[in-house]
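Record format v2
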Amino acid sequence: MGDSNIFNQIALKWQKRWEDTKIFEVKAYPGKKKFYCLEMYPYPSASGLHMGHARNYVIGDVLARYKRMNGYNVLYPMGYDSFGLPAENAAIQAKSHPKIFTEKAITNFIRQQKSLGLSYDWTRKIMSHSPEYYKWDQWTFLKMLEKGLAYKKQSLVNWCSKCNTVLANEQVTPKNTCWRHTNLEVESKELNQWYLKITDYAEQLLEGLDKLYGWTEEVKTMQRNWIGKSHGTKLWFDVIDEKGQKTDKISTYTTRPDTVYGITYLVLAVEHPKVIEWTKGTEYEQKAKDFIQEVKKKSIIERTAEGKEKNGMFLGKYFINPFTGDKCPLWIADYALYDYGTGAVMAVPAHDQRDFEFAKKYNLPIKVVISPTSWELNAERMSRAYIDPGILVESQDFNGMNNKDAIDEITNYAEQKGWGKRTVNYKLRDWLISRQRFWGCPIPIVYCDACGIVPVPEKDLPVILPEDIKFEGAENPLTKHEPFINTKCPNCGKPAKRETDTMDTFIDSSWYFIRYCDPANNTKIFDSNKVNYWLPIDQYIGGTEHATGHLIYFRFFTKFYRDLGLLKVDEPAVRLYNQGMLHLNGSVMSKSKGNVVLPEEVSEKYGIDTGRFYMMFVASPDKDMEWSSQGVEGSYRFLKKFFDLLSEKVSSEAIEKREESKLHSTIKQVTENIKAIKYNKAIISIMQFTNYLHNRNSISKQSAEALVKLISPFTPHISEELWEKLGHKQTISFENWPLHDENKIDAETDYLEEMLDNTRNDIISVMKLTNINKANKITLFVAEEWKYALANIVKQTLAETRNPKDIITKAMQDPQVKSKSQQAMKLIPKLTKESNLPKAVASQRKEHQVLNDARKLLEKEFKCTVVIVKEQDSNRHAKAVSALPGKCGVLLE
RNA sequence: GCGGGGGUAGCAAAGCCUGGUCAAAUGCGCAGGACUUAAGAUCCUGUCCCUUAGUGGGUUCGGGGGUUCGAAUCCCCUCCCCCGCACCA
């Protein structure tokens, strides 16, 4: 391989310098404005990172660099989500230790990330597999235990046979597969596991969403759905035996208490404990067991997909509907979910589609209690449930009531009678955190025959994951590691056994962003002062795929620490940015698909700045984009042009007015667009200004310096180099961001410059056409433009009225203006914006001035006399027209 | 079904919030030209259609309708694509 690219050499030079001078290391600095910019920390995969990952990091890096230049104390850290299965599986295969794989991968990640020029404060690096970090996972767990938020229970759980562990609800895909093995369905197992009571925070997690103004609606909606709050009513019914004796109670949850008079049966989920209880010793016992078996064989998706055929079975029991006194049958059915509500459903077949289908299949009665206003429902002839609003019928005292009102009224009535109670229900479930795997944070619990479940005392933390382990098969080697398992009960000192399950790795990522604020603290989880200074995260960047997992968990943890009094914020991140995916050859770039572009390739060929620039330029960072090697070439061409221009063509002359005007509007646009993370637009402004300067073949020092600053967040290495070439000794990274001066932006000047350019081109064209290469005199015919006519109208109208709309109308009535309405209207906003008369006049005056300037410039350029006459000066105009074919605006003499 | 995001010239992608300066930025691609022995690189010009030295005219922003002096932009209807949730009682 030959010499690497010049940009690459520059990149290496500056990366080394940044590292040597430690310029990106930060400290909490109370009183100084801060900005916390964070990308979701990665799992350090052995395959390293490709440009798709790089895109994500560059989005944050650009912002971090921009904020630094705006005087913010910027916290921009990186770390590794380094517990987890891939490393463990690799270790199993190689009969080695996951730590070895993990740390090797991390080393590689760091090397790659540094090569991207990311301005992280590397001293804050955290790795969740280090005992210094996971000690505080354990500490947090103990705190939760203390507060009653961690508990152990026997329950049906999701089990992935490939991962050989249980999974949280959030880790099961909608297709009911494991998130890591998307073609393997998860199984259901009944296990005794540790849970975190995230449901205690359901309401806060829901309400907090309204405060997250910097989150997309998409993610907030997903979280709302996931939390799944609904208002309803709990109703309980007396259960009777065949003789009519009351034997038990059953409670149900409904959002439709207005339909209680239409209940004709009740179904329980198969998991409901009452099923076994009630059928015990009856003729239904075996049948029920078989039915449950049958249902459990099916996957959750088979059971719960909408439209699936519903199956059920009568339980041989009845209940009394207290509203009507009717005796109705109790069933079990596969469509009832044990997880939701109370695990039992009061069935109203006339007004619920699922109940309707079930009733039809098993010939259960259908009773209409809500009637549409304009026609009559006939229970026998219904082909589907009636779920629209209507008027109550067959509902005793509530007959005739609008069903919406009846929801409230009937609930009141039920509460009065003691039959039911208003409740709020959530779909959110508690978080199952036990994992039957080795490579995770040990759960700090000891089981003692005498004392039961005993937490490891805080002083004994961390419970360390042993290094001398042997993998045999896929099983967690901790279960056979005697020195780990065998311990003494912290309570009574007798021999006891340690919990061998480890925690879900999402625990690690639930608070890592807090630890960054105080990463090396070994006396407590973090220092509150430091954390209160840095939090909340001002800009969080990561994929939408975490919407209902990590992004809920980290909010939960934040609220928990807040309740412990450790920090003050309610929400971890006020702004969340979801980046788009990078594609190659039409599909998402990924190692497993084999369609990756590596940062190394890009660096070698073009320098990494080119890659950064290209990715930020092609599309808005939140949109998916396609990698195109030709596109990268284009960016490279531009950067070379940019680099040459600023290295060689910087002049010492004072900045010209027009250049200054363009410079200031460029500063304005770039700044606004970076702020809004519309980097693509910011870059385009930079390109346009650069191209403008390039055509003029010179650039003032003022523009040069501003331009280098403006581009520096995107192409930091090249920018440092140019900054140095411009004679600066300090890094550009902390230079003041350029400010634009609105007064220097002069649209009028820009417009007139364009006009001058056109005129110049006209003259050249005419010269060519007439074979004249030098004219002594050039006469320009400038149209007595509609502008003046319009300005007059505006002036007049303004004198009469102050309503811009009137002006427009009046202008349209003027035949002269109307004929050129399209062009004429272009000027209207300018003139009417502030409805102020002097401005209209001023703009008129200015035009004359500039025409004069134009004349001078043209005279200089063409070395001749230039005469400007109004087009209406018809003599001269006629002469011009006759001198050349067509209508002529330029006459050469 | 519910919720979210989209459909713009050969391709990618701006513009839409705040209607007029929009035949619509920018990049890629393509065509022509300059330079060169040549290729590459670089630079210039063009790139919806017709016409022009410049101007100008015509038809465009998924489809249809409306509001307006004026619509890619606002409103209504409709078609298509993507993504989340989904028998949640």
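The first helix of chain A runs from residue 6 to 21.
The radius of gyration of chain A is 37 Å.
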